[in-house]
Amino acid sequence: MTPQQYCQQKTRESGSSFTLSFMFLTKDKREAMTALYAFCREVDDVVDECSDYQIAQTKLAWWKQEIHRLFHETPQHPVTQALKPVVDAFHLQEAHFVEIIDGMQMDTQYNRYADFEQLALYCYRVASVVGLLSAQIFGYKDQATLEYAHDLGMAFQLTNIIRDVGEDARRGRIYIPLDELERAGVTEEQLLHSQASPQTQALLLKQIERAELFYDKALSQLPKADTKPQLPGLMMAAIYRALLQEIKPDPNLVLTHKVALPPFRKLKLALGAWFKYRKP
């Protein structure tokens, strides 16, 4: 199995909606995004699969060493071997890969976030940085596109947090800022035990409102000249915003269910965005 084949398998196994947009890329960009996504899956799996804090830290420390080897020596892992030509071709920065691992380390250190400032740092590291790397692979002319990529990454991660409230709570994790729980009159125990109430509904609606603001801000910052190259992100934005709209009528549903869009609807949304934005 070649490094690229390994990345393709890792990406397929994830079943993520993000891979849907890859099919619209040229071969070199598709392979680059597949390698980047496989890297994100590898380091995320460390957190998901290691219940022992020390083992998770050791594995993430190894990945930091591997990123150093990627940029300065000879990488050992199939994913970083696949990334080697990518970082050269698209001028990707070592610091961004380290930031992603730092975000995963936050997941091993915290299962609560005191306020949005702390949560925003986590979202930046695990999502906005991925958005910045993706924007470089897709291509851009205007620096404002990086602001768009940053905010779109925030919007995506906030959407994930809303969708996964119940699932995360069952793993003992709460990503909604604790000060916002307190203001809403919601206790940690209510979330941990999936106890729906008017207060939890209001709290979740506030989270949806914040995510929508990030989508609006991101789209308002995307220069027209870069709309076409950034189509994959716009396609994903259409899918993720539709997911928020699916949750919005009954936000408490996420306490007990994982809301998802059927594959055909996601494809329809992606194609709709492609037709909407592909015109110069």
What does this structure look like?
71% of the residues lie in helices and 0% in strands. It is mostly helical and 280 residues long. Helix 1 packs across helix 4, helix 2 (27-49) packs parallel to helix 5 and helix 3 (53-72) packs antiparallel against helix 5. The longest helix has 24 residues, at 198-221. The radius of gyration is 19 Å and the shape is globular. The mean pLDDT is 94.
Please render the helix and strand layout as text.
Elements: H1 3-14, H2 27-49, H3 53-72, H4 78-89, H5 94-109, H6 116-138, H7 144-163, H8 165-170, H9 178-184, H10 188-192, H11 198-221, H12 231-247, H13 263-277
Helix pairs in contact: 1-2, 1-4, 2-4, 2-5, 2-6, 3-4, 3-5, 5-6, 6-7, 7-11, 7-12, 11-12, 12-13
**Average of pLDDT:** 94
Q: Termini, distance in Å?
A: 40 Å
Residues in β-strands, percent:
under 5%
- SS class: mainly alpha
- Main sheet: strands, sense, barrel: none
| H and E string | HHHHHHHHHHHHH
Large-scale geometry: globular
Q: Compute the gyration radius: what is it?
A: 19 Å
Number of strands: 0
Low confidence ranges = none
Residues in helix, %: over 70%
**Count of DSSP helices?**
13
Give a short synopsis of this structure.
The chain is an all-alpha fold.
Q: Can you tag this structure with a few keywords?
A:
single chain, 280 residues, mainly alpha
